[in-house]
Amino acid sequence: MHDRLQRFRAGHPLELTGRVAIVVDDGLASGFTLLTAVAAVRSGQPTRLLVAVPTGHGESVQRVAGEVDALYCANVRTSLAFAVADAYEQWSDVSEDEALTLLRMAQSPH
Length: 110
Known about the structure:
Elements: H1 2-9, E1 20-24, H2 32-42, E2 48-57, H3 58-65, E3 70-77, H4 96-107
Parallel strand pairs: 1-2, 2-3
């Protein structure tokens, strides 16, 4: 896990103190993975912590909303069985290499 953090941060510390943090995910099934991320971000002492997801199960949306300052979810599902991929017409996982490429593109001056 430490190696993965170093790889994604590329040696740059994550400074959240006094900032608004926005955590984005592809969706909430159980919500427990996102709650772990929320706890990690919260430890950085941001002034506000927001979560944005395009889809999520209603119970998970409520669970996570209780732990953050605001949660935005455009498509709340209430069916008994729910998988995030079911909410998408086309679904594919993003590899770590692809995520790193996107992060580098976002950080480079345009």
